[in-house]
Amino acid sequence: MRKLIPPNFQDPVGLATRLVRSRDPAALFAMLSTFLAAVAIPLDGVLAASERRLYEQASAPRMPIVIVTGAPRVGTTIVSQVLSAHLPVTFFNNLTAIFPRAPIVANRLFRRLLRHRATNYRSFYGRTHGFARQNDGLHLWDRWLGEDRYAVPAELAPPVAERMRRFFAAYETAFGKPILTKNNALATHATTVARALPTSHFVFVRRQPEYAAQSILRAREVIQGSRSVPYGVPDPRCGTVGKDAASPIEAVCAQLAYHDRRMREQQEELGPGRFWVLEYEDFCRTPERIVERVGREILGIEVDAAAVRAALPSFHSTNRVSVSAADFTEIRATLARLDVPLVADDR
């Protein structure tokens, strides 16, 4: 039986309690989805036979694949939501999490559940509310990258890469549009997927690190129940508090330094035309620019810039101090010691 709770979650009972207390619609929907996924296991298995035939008929994707990535808590969710709302793309929705073995067939079978809703950019730590809304699709990536979502392999075996290509080709064919997806775990190993998916492009979102650090600390508390438990891909050399990191703040700052280093290395390997870096603060001020650029340079389409600007007012940056003054001072000092550039906030 497949695992309904990823192994990286250290405190599932406590997490459920915290989600209920949050009263956030997306958090509660995440719990409902987990329950429905358990109930749907037999049907998912039945539908999987038809799903496999779709993969057998596919070969490799022909359309561009846009993958939004970055360190945790840097704004990847809102970026992917904006791109999917204003560009002709398809994406993995929350229904796929209920039927991870047959996402294409399930979307066809239950298409009446996928009613179009007004654009909504709300989320709860990357989770959204409603069957038709975006999902990271980590349950799908687990097929090729393994169940440990904090340890993406540097290489994929040829048969695994082939299965990945066939899946993306089948999904593209089923929905007739380029695929846009978000996966923060790929921030440090985008090159692994780039080799398997030649039409893939990456939008790496970067946020002022001191604010990303405090947000990751909060995510550790809300999702994992403790600041000492990792949230997102850690620095493999400094990921365990009490062992190779003196404190949660040091571990989180090392995590961001690792992502920053891998960002530069991967952009050099893949080239700036295939691996973009998008500053979260720039996105908040002028979100229409990334929509226009992805449309023009990746999808090869003309975007009605005026219409996008009219529909997309600027977003309020969430860059504000939310930890104690002592913690924020320690965060900045640790980032400086690790040579992570602190970008001046000119808002």
Spell out the helices and strands N to C: HHHEHHHHHEHEHHEHHHH
Tell me the strand percentage band.
5-15%
Count the DSSP helices: 15
Report the biggest beta sheet as strand number plus sense, adding barrel if it closes: 4 strands, parallel
**What is the mean predicted local confidence, pLDDT?**
93
Structural class: alpha/beta
Rounded to an integer, what's the Rg over CA atoms? 20 Å
Terminus-to-terminus distance: 50 Å
Uncertain regions: pLDDT < 50 for 5+ in a row?
Answer: none
Work out the helicity level.
40-55%
In the CATH scheme, the class would be Alpha Beta
Number of domains: 1
Reported CATH architecture = 3-Layer(aba) Sandwich
* CATH T-level fold name: Rossmann fold
Shape: globular
Number of DSSP-assigned strands: 4
In words, what does this structure look like?
The chain is α/β, with parallel strands linked by helices. The chain has a single domain, classed as Rossmann fold (3-Layer(aba) Sandwich). It is 50% helix and 6% strand. The protein has a four-stranded parallel sheet, with helices on both faces. Helix 3 crosses helix 6 and helix 10 crosses helix 15. The chain is globular and about 55 Å long. It starts with 11 loop residues before the first helix and ends in a 10-residue tail after the last helix. The mean pLDDT is 93.
Can you summarize this structure?
The protein has 15 helices and 4 strands.
Architecture blueprint of SSEs:
Layout: H1 12-22, H2 25-39, H3 41-57, E1 65-70, H4 76-86, H5 95-98, H6 103-109, H7 138-145, H8 158-175, E2 179-182, H9 190-196, E3 200-206, H10 209-224, H11 248-270, E4 275-279, H12 280-285, H13 287-298, H14 305-311, H15 325-337
Parallel strand pairs: 1-2, 1-3, 3-4
Helix pairs in contact: 3-6, 3-8, 4-13, 10-11, 10-15, 11-15
